[in-house]
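hey can u run this one w/ KG4 bound, need the structure tokens asap thx
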Amino acid sequence: MKLDQFRTLIVAIDTSTDMLACTAAWWIPEVFFDDTPSRACVEVLASRDHLCRRQANVELVETVQGVLADAGMRMEDVGGFLVGRGPGSFTGVRIGISTAKGLARGANVPLMGASTLDACAWTAWGAGTRGLLGVAADAMRGEVYPALYALDDVGAHRMFERERVVKAAVAVEEWAARSDASELQLTGDGLVRYGKLFEEAGLMGRALDPELWRPTGEGLLLAAADPEAYNRIESGDPALVLPIYTRLSDAEENERKRLGLAESVNTAVTGVAEELAGRHLQFRPMAAADAEPMAALEERVFADAGHEAWNASMFLSELFSDAAAARSWWVAHDNGELIGYAGGMVVDRDIEILNMAVAPEHRRAGIARKLLSHVSYDAQMLGCTSASLEVEDGNTAAIALYQSLGFTEVGRRRGYYGPGCDALVMQASLPLVLPVDPASPEPTAAVQREWPLPEPERTPEESAELKRRQLILAIESSCDETAVAIVDAEGNLLANQVSTQIDFHARFGGVVPEIASRKHVEVIVGVVDAALEEAATSLGLAGGAVAPAELAAVGVTYGPGLVGALVVGVAFAKGFAASAGLPLIAVNHLEGHLFANKLTTPDLEPPFIFTLVSGGHTMLVHVRAWGNYEVLGETLDDAVGEAFDKVAKALGLGYPGGPIISRLAEDGNPCAIDFPRALNSRGDYRFSLSGLKTAVTLYIEQETKAGRTINLPDLAASFEAAVFDVQYKKAKNALRETGAREYCIGGGVTANPHLRRMMIEKLGRQGIRVTVPPLKACTDNAAMIAVVAREKFLRGEFAPLDIDADPNLTL
Ligand code: KG4
Ligand code: ZN
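ok here u go:
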């Protein structure tokens, strides 16, 4: 990392606990001739450490500015930033790291990271504590991050390697059992909540002054200056600084349990289990729509064996069998294609595996094992203690697989598979012996690059042109896409980057908020850099990328959306704007969907009627003037996109449902099934989709019970028709009532070709000018955020640096 040889002004921040730690200091590397790493000297200039509960995102950037002012310094003087990487409050850690990434990227200076637990220990060291020290940091939900240190005059030395999380009672027990327990001094904000437990074990006698229980900025600096520092990020590249997580998201931990994998122990630096997502492999319980592809796979696999294969209705009847015996059926999908299944029936306390198959081209990937582990896990939940199955004698591959899972031969059925062809009956007790996946590898995705980046060399003409263009960079992170776009003041779109996380959520059947937040933190610098490079290419500039200081403003979505996802974009944007000296523009995501229409029709002017149909919203709006929105009606329950997703899920078709259903509907008859149209009376602009969703589910159940196979295209087309008829009718009524002659639409569902065509043709016939956004700007993207940011920029509507994410923002 390139820091000044003599001294560098460093600003250290940590928001992993209730303490907003912020310190400016000189960082003076101690130079040794033999290159021995040694402790840098830290000379504190100013500190504004203060308690600040849940307000970190509001106060952090202004606190940094305040500390610099106290130190008599300016942002341009800062030579590097340092951030506490946790572990701590997930949101707190994310706010600190995202802000720090923004600050470092905007100023093009190095970003260092250090462990917040180390910072706690060094805070105590700085206050004169020596001897054995236990840090118990609050991990919420009854848990702490326990960490032991030996403090001597040299510094705080770790007595552990990896941060971990345990129940508070476990930490108490471990520490109380130590032979040196009587010397143990305690600190950490976990003592606030769980002090009583430590007290009961007689450990609180040597607790430090509560004033010292949280990390200070100076403590963080000392921790980073320690040549022994763990988890130190050496390159200075802000893209590489990530939170220290001690486990995966709850959704993934549960998945690991169900898959029979070992619990994660902070091997994944990012906290997202890539080894599962990377395979695009999804395991989920069988659904009605799987019956056909299961029968097709069965036919392929059993064709050669010469015995009878199950057909679709046999598979279906498993799903809806109301026989007393409980069933468990699981399927494996890869990129939407069914590649394996396994299922069984509970008899007494044994699960009889009835059928199992894996597509030949996907064998030897452990899929059969995982399918079996799902089924046997269910069986255990249903009270089973053993699993049994029959396998053809001589099928050595299958027998070997079952043996490796603990199955042994318990009987033989003569001639079961035809004359001279016996079946072996094998049995295993539960839980099955399941292999542990190799630990996920350290991520290699982020390329090592020189940091700081070289400042671009511009000719005077180029600089003048950049200035004239007034580039606005916009960031969108409200849900599961990290997106960055750049427009100029004339509205030319110069960059449009989207990093989607769909692969990481699809196997859970919807967006998992905790995964979304983690992925945003992981990719935000990369996506911003890609946009800055794309803009340079669009402008024909040499030198790789547009520099932050060459921009005119930064826009960011601040709501509505998932709060943990929004804060990443907002915190990054604020840090970036503050350090690059740019004004900040706060954008409403819903306005973004509206303004996406300007990409198609730049002269779009109110008054007009606007329909918003996305995964989270369904609204009919009378846009009287820009910024003057009369919401005529909203959904009372599900949003339209949500209904698509839920219906697709009920059919076992995957996530997101919109594109899957609209593709199926291409070949379907929209009049085939008469689904209800809710709140369809004149003058009522409210929507309701839950009744329709229920009607679809009921239909699936009825048809399957009756043994009929569902015509998916007809179902999809009829469902779409029920949704879109209502949308059309209400839009038409609103146009008539308001007298508006112009109509536009936005949100992810607008990507649906049938909806687009219907509005354009039917409303067009009535003389209404209809605009639909470009296909790429329908689902979440930053181009639409940039369009709004540009309008606000031209009006001089800037946001203060204490703005926070607002998950419930409306139009
Ligand atoms: O606007 P968006 O990307 O995210 C939100 O702000 O909610 O919308 C996502 C929604 C998802 O529910 C998805 O299923 C739906 O848009 N969607 C579609 C289509 N493509 C995406 N719905 C119907 N037909 C499509 N082709
Ligand atoms: Zn959206």
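The mean pLDDT is 89. anyway lmk if its weird
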